[in-house]
Amino acid sequence: MNIFNVGLESWNIIYVKLNWVAVIILVIAILIVSFMIKKCANIAKKHSITINEVNLGIGDTSVKLVYNKKDQEIAYKLWVELSTRKIGLPFDQENDVISEVYNSWYDFFKIARELLKEIPVSRLPYSNDLIKLTEKVLNTGLRPHLTMWQAKFRKWYGDNINDNNKEKTPQQIQMMYPDYEELKKDLIETNTRMIEYKKLMERIAFEK
Fold it and tell me: Which sequence ranges are marked TM in the entry (predicted)?
């Protein structure tokens, strides 16, 4: 399909005929290619942020995390989940019920894993830093507390929600746990790390 034709109408007249269908198709093709190039450039655009691993409980150094537009989308989803659950809020020693806090932590653990699993294989090379960081936070920053305390506390708490303590609130009963102070200290430290992770996801998600 020719875009234009050039010919001689007579010995002294040259004519040019435009193929308007071909011109329109060419313009549309150029616009599509320009849009795709711009979109790919935005996706590939890299940002970086320095992370203190100590604050997240995943190490003892500062590392640089490189991320792009797609990583920001993942970070936003993680930030929303953290911001709307107890895991992303400071532990209230007077009012929070530990078993409910553990429910929130466990739910986030599952949701975060599902979000990471949703990342297509084709994007793994571009989202690798964020994936590794989140895996570290889950496995090194969050899991140890749940492994050490959750089952023991739930068993004890279930055994002590009975008629002997019916006049007490759940908060008062949980304070009777033999290792309450040690559990509380570790819970607050873990909770603080998750709040730092929430702040980090917010910074990544909303970076321009």
Answer: 20-37
Helix, strand, coil share of the chain (percent; to 5): 65, 10, 20
Coil, strand, or helix at residue 166?
coil
**Residue 43 pLDDT:** 45
Any bridge partners for residue 83, and if so which? none
Number of domains in the chain: 2
Same domain as 87, residue 138: yes
Give strand pairing partners of 16. Answer: 6
- Residue 18 lies in domain: 1-44
Closest CA to 195 of 148, 150, 149, 142: 142
Please tell me whether residues 35 and 57 are part of one structural domain. no
Helices (H) and strands (E) in the chain, counts: 9, 4
The pLDDT score that the predictor gives to residue 97 is: 96
Q: Which two tokens stand for residue 171?
A: 């908060």
Q: Which residues does the chain have with pLDDT short of 50?
A: 41-44
Closest listed residue to residue 178, CA positions, set 194, 196, 161, 160: 160
